[in-house]
Amino acid sequence: MARDPYDVIGVARTANAEDIKKAFRKKAKALHPDANPKDAKAQDRFAELNNAYELLSDEAKRKSFDRGEIDAEGKQRFTGFEGFGGRPGGTRGGAPGGDTIFETFSFGQEGFRRSGNRKAGGAPSSDDFFDILSGMTGRAGGSFRGGDPFGAGGEPQSGGEDVTLTVRVPFLDAARGATQRVVLPSGEAVDIKIPSGTRDGHRMRLRGKGKPGSLGRPTGDAYVVIAVEPHPAFRAEGKDVRLELPIALDEAILGGKVRAPTLDGEVELTLPAMTASGKSFRLRGKGLASADGPGDLYVTMRIVLPEPSADLEGFARVLKERRKTDPRQGL
C-alpha cells in the first residue's frame, strides 16, 4: 500500500502549494539515484516521491485525496452505497422522502451503518431491517437494484490490478534516449519514450494500462521497469561512465593521438609518452544525462602487447638489464 503523500514529501496537510514544491525539491535532491549510486532502493524511493508530488501538485487530486475519495495512488476508494432505487438518497419502494427508512447505507470497519431519516413513528422493525439486507445481498429472492457490489466470495469488488513489465533496453538507447514498443498484458502495443540517461531499474508509470476493475471500477496502472543491457565497452557508475581503451605498446611508450568512442561519437585523445596501463583520462560532460547536469566519461588505458617476435624478445631483455626499479616495490 502506498504511503501518505504528505508523509512521503514531509509536509503538513495545511501546507500550501509553494511549501510542497520546496519540500519536494529538497527531498528530490537528497533521494536522487545519482546521489545514491550504491543504494539499490534509491530508484524506488525517488519514484515514490515523484508519485506523491504528482498527486499533491494537482489541486483537484489533492482535494479528492483530502476528502478521502481517492487513495495515495490516485485510485478511487470504495465508499459504500449511496442508496436504493438507482440514485443517491433513494427511497424504499419508491416512497417520497418523508417515508424513507434509510436514505444511505455503507459498510465500514464498524459493519453495517445507516444515515438519514426514519419513517414517521419511530425506528424500523426487524422485518424492515432484514428486508433491506436480503435486498442488498440477493438472498430470499431479493435483489439489489443498483447492482451487486459483492463478488461470489462476499467481498467488496476492488479496482483493477497494477501490472509490472520488465523491458530490456540496449545500453546506448538508454544513454542517448530512444522510443521502444511495449506489448501490454491486454495485447495492446504502446510506444514508450526512454529518456536519455535512463538508469537500470528505472520505473515508468502508464496510467490506466493495467488490468480493468470490476463493475466499472478504475483500471489499474502498468509499471514498466527498465533493464539496461550491458555494453561490451561502456559501464555506468551512477551518472558517470567508464571505458577501457586498448592501446598498443608503442603508443604507450611514445605517446601520440588515439581515437576513443564516447556515447555520442568518437573523440581524439592525446596520450603523453610513457602512458602506463591503468592510466585514466576524464572527459567532462561525456557521461549520462542527469537532472543536475551530465556525468563524466573516464577512459582507462589498457596496454595490448604485440604478437611475439625475436625483436620484441630482444627489446624486453635490454629493458630487463637496464631496469633499476621494482614495479612491485611497496606492496
UniProtKB/TrEMBL annotation:
Protein name: J domain-containing protein
InterPro entries for this protein: DnaJ_C, DnaJ_domain, DnaJ_domain_CS, HSP40/DnaJ_pept-bd, J_dom_sf
Keyword NAD attributed: no
GO biological-process terms attached to the record: protein refolding
Residues annotated as domain J: 4-69
Region (Disordered): 195-215
GO cellular component terms attached to this protein's record: cytoplasm
GO MF annotation terms: unfolded protein binding
